[in-house]
Design a protein that fits this description.
Number of helices: 10
Shape: globular
Radius of gyration: 17 Å
Strand content: 5-15%
Distance between the termini: 38 Å
Structural class: alpha/beta
Largest sheet: 5 strands, mixed
Number of strands: 5
């Protein structure tokens, strides 16, 4: 049964499933760019309570599985939607002649955010590649020159990556946030409809 149909008829059972089980029931269960599985999963994530989204995030980070990195990307983009951004999903996997960003977050009157999701900061990150994505999007007029790169890191300790960014020529164009800190912003947003609060979060 497709996960969306299952959700409509057996909501409590679905909420008790792991994110890996959810993915296996989405479309043909094969999460890839342009697939029915991807479309169903992304729609499903817009429907579930925020607590479920946060639980799925923990599962991806603490117990990785096949395609958990792609699922994490969709979950982070869903957090962007919960923060009132208009979110454009990127590619799960880079391919020739395509710009490999993970997401673009837009909010009226504000510079865009080109989002890059990383599970850890334990390894040197190719900042040049992410900057090339941004430059490519600017060249295609998909984002403005005022845009920034937002790197979302699974680990709370982002010290190594912070040092790498500070020492690079891209320091002015890159923002960095841990998943935990992003989650806290979503929780604040969920408790307030105040426009000033939303502006502060952004």
């Amino acid at each position: 049964m497709a996960i969306l149909d299952y959700w409509r008829s057996n909501r409590e059972i679905v909420l008790g499933q792991t994110i890996q089980q959810v993915v296996s029931n989405a479309g043909d269960g094969n999460l890839r760019d342009g697939s029915s599985a991807s479309a169903e999963l992304r729609e499903f994530l817009t429907l579930v309570p925020i607590d479920s989204v946060l639980s799925y995030l923990r599962q991806c980070l603490e117990s990785p599985f096949h395609k958990s990195g792609s699922v994490l990307q969709d979950l982070i983009n869903e957090l962007g939607r919960r923060l009132d951004f208009e979110v454009e999903n990127g590619l799960y996997q880079g391919r020739r002649n395509a710009i490999g960003y993970d997401g673009i977050w837009r909010f009226s009157g504000e510079p865009e955010l080109v989002v890059e999701v990383k599970t850890t900061d334990a390894y040197t990150f190719p900042l040049e590649t992410t900057n090339e994505y941004r430059e490519g999007l600017i060249a295609k007029c998909q984002i403005s020159r005022a845009s920034s790169i937002l790197i979302v890191v699974g680990r709370e300790d982002t010290g190594a990556l912070e040092a790498q960014v500070r020492g690079s020529r891209f320091a002015w164009d890159i923002r960095l946030i841990s998943v935990d800190s992003l989650v806290k912003l979503v929780q604040i947003r969920a408790k307030s409809d105040d426009a000033a609060t939303v502006r502060q979060i952004h």
